[in-house]
Amino acid sequence: MTARISKDTRLCMSLAARPSNIGTRFHNYLYEKLGLDYVYKAFTTTDLPGAIGGVRALGVRGCAVSMPFKEAVIPLLDRLDASAERLQSVNTIVNDQGVLTGYNTDYLAVRQLLERHAVPRGLRVALRGSGGMARAVLAALVDFGLADGTVIARNAMAGQALARLHGWHWQPEVDGIQAGLIVNVTPVGMSGSADAASLAFGASQIAGAALVFDVVALPVETPMIIEARRAGKPVITGGEVIALQAAAQFSLYTGVSVDEELVAEASDYSRA
After folding, report:
1. pLDDT of 2 strictly over 60
2. Would you say 171 and 165 are in contact if contact means Cβ atoms under 8 Å apart?
3. How large a percentage of the chain has pLDDT more than 90?
4. Over 188-228, what HEC string results?
């Protein structure tokens, strides 16, 4: 039987431009399975300082942070974990009696997935995107040993800065790109976006890649992932990323580690 919410129930939450039910279902599923007196709720906001002030003032235990708040939230926090400090991007806030610490669990999730999928380290990479998640993904790629690549971003300032940081190339559009690993870290293909039905890379670029990686999790089967499967290419999906990073968040919030089987169970439930 589901526990009743009481005055002692701890609240965790998320902030996103377009909230989904994935995180809410994932965390609440695990709370119930493990008998933890927590509840998780997704929110959006047009007042980020007010929202973070509420996290602090109301004793919200943890807050997941999604686009477009991952960088803007940093000045509102008290301190950064080494992962967030290095990336200058936060996807997780932990509230310890009013002290707010920012973390980045996206980086860890991507590193784990590169290992799990045994990605060859000699691949040339094309990464589309230049925001907070792109920073985390690119740092994970480089630290894994994928040192040769191109950042594709229409925002020249952000794209060039990110490319320079890791010694990569930059170009504004995907035209002419051929790479062994192609990675989408933009809203292209995301439900509700203006480009929900679009491919982040062209069909010929997908066909020419050895591996296709799309960070978009809603839907997991994005147009790019569908095209890659049609072409017989191995894929890494945003569903895998979100499950691993959410498991890390769950542990930061509750102090409880969850085994892979239960994480997979909660992830399947979250997208059902």
Report:
1. no
2. no
3. 84
4. CCCCCCCCCCCCCCCHHHHHHCCEEEECCCCCCCCHHHHHH
Q: State the Cα–Cα distance between residues 165 and 139, nearest whole angstrom.
A: 9
Which residue in this structure is represented by tokens 């690119």? Answer: 138
pLDDT in tens, 203-256: 999 999 999 999 998 899 999 999 999 999 999 999 899 889 989 999 999 999
Among 7, 33, 41, 70, the active-site one is 70
Q: Helix, strand or coil for residue 110? A: helix
Location of each CATH 3.40.50.720 domain in the chain: 118-233
**Quick one: which of 43, 41, 58 has its CA closest to 98?**
58
Cα angle 64-70-72, degrees, rounded to a multiple of 5: 125
What does the pLDDT read at residue 133? 87
Residue 145 corresponds to which tokens in the numbers above? 């040993």
State how far the Cα of 217 lies from the Cα of 230, in Å rounded to an integer.
19
Structure tokens at 157: 């300032």
Assess whether 70 carries a catalytic annotation.
yes
The strand pairing partners of 13, in sequence order, are 41, 63
Q: What is 118-233's CATH topology?
A: Rossmann fold (3.40.50)
Q: What's the pTM value of the predicted model, to 2 decimals? A: 0.80
Q: Which class is 10-104+240-270 in CATH? A: alpha beta
* Tens digit of each residue's pLDDT (9 = 90 or more) over 151-207: 999 999 999 999 999 999 999 999 999 999 999 999 999 999 999 999 999 999 999
- Report d(CA 190, CA 19) in Å as an integer: 12
In contact, 126 and 179? CB cutoff 8 Å: yes
